[in-house]
Design goal:
It holds the Pfam family DUF3489. InterPro entries: DUF3489. This is DUF3489 domain-containing protein. The protein is an alpha+beta fold. The protein has one domain: Winged helix-like DNA-binding domain superfamily/Winged helix DNA-binding domain (Arc Repressor Mutant, subunit A, Orthogonal Bundle). Helices cover 35% and strands 12% of the residues. It has a 3-stranded antiparallel β-sheet. Helix 2 crosses helix 3. The longest helix is centred in the middle third of the chain and has 13 residues. It starts with 18 loop residues before the first helix and ends in a 5-residue tail after the last strand. The relative contact order is 0.20.
Length: 84
């Protein structure tokens, strides 16, 4: 047996963004997003989405609750400092 190193280039796959990272990027939208919209985008149940928002707040990420948009009763959420 010979000890040869492979000449093939090592292929590194791009790390898939975690659900928490996806949540943060969705919350940077200027108008924010409702819990239901976040749940649909992330394929989570609504109670899981609310828990994830709570965990973000506990981790020190500023999450603000916005008033519902006109004609809606659902509050919207976004990360504090997201461009308006």
């Amino acid at each position: 047996m010979t000890n040869r190193k492979s000449t093939r280039a090592v292929q590194r796959t791009k790390a898939k963004a975690s659900k928490a990272d996806q949540l943060k990027s969705l919350l940077t939208k200027p108008d924010g997003m409702t819990v239901e919209a976040l749940s649909t985008k992330l394929s989570w149940q609504t109670h899981t989405t609310r828990a994830a928002l709570t965990r973000l707040k506990q981790a020190g990420v500023g999450v603000e609750k916005l008033d519902p948009s006109e004609g809606s009763r659902q509050s919207r959420y976004r990360i504090v400092g997201a461009k308006k």
